[in-house]
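Model it.
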Amino acid sequence: MREMIEKSKLLVFDLDGTLYEDTDHFDYYCSLLQQRADVSIQEEFYNAYEEMKQGSHPVAIGKVYDLKKDAALTVDPLTLQVTAAHLWDGTPMDEETLKREYSGELTYDFERFIAIGDGWWLPYVTAMHYGLSQQDTWESYNATKVYMVSDEFSLTKTPGLKESLQRLKREKHLVLMTNSEKDDVLRLLRELELDELFDEIFSSSRKPVKTKEILKAIISKYKVKPEEAVSIGDNFINEIAPALLMGLNAVYIQPNGYDLHHDNLYIVPTL
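Modeled.
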């Protein structure tokens, strides 16, 4: 991996789960949503979320949630074909329905098909299943972002990251591409002491829907070939699969490992 990084001319980083790897804020987000649910289902709400985190629920990071069918879809990230589907209670979807509903490539849209690429989406999907509104999720998400820059919350700085980025910046272009809003991004970077290290910041990027479009623009702007660029992130759907499909190299941060071999891919447990 070191050789791949050293030979590159452009590094595109994700923010959440990449430049910092804390997860407590996901639990906080879920607790805010839980409080908005009807009292009679609050315990069930949080238990479902905990099952997701432990891997004992059909919904999990790496899956796609079909809001219309209330189902967790298994999708091949490189072909975008749905290979299996399970209802919320774990019941497998029958083959006939599977073929009828999910023929061809799946298109993520944030409306019906929600890519569960990282921990932010588990509370959101739980909220959708239990009937909360988009306003509920948005207000709770914003409140979590406020919490993350308060004195009650502290980010864990990745040892050696700042020094490594400073060294790489002397030789390469460093770009940040994140779904977080600009104000939140700037506050988090200041807290992590990583501000002013990036040539450019793409916030509110709407990954994975816009990932390829933005990567194409970045490659063109910095005049590099796809094989001279590396996408680095913790979300396979958002940052890794689109980059590999475009011919970029990629570093996937996944502490539990990942069963995929690709010549342009390195999998690491932590940045």
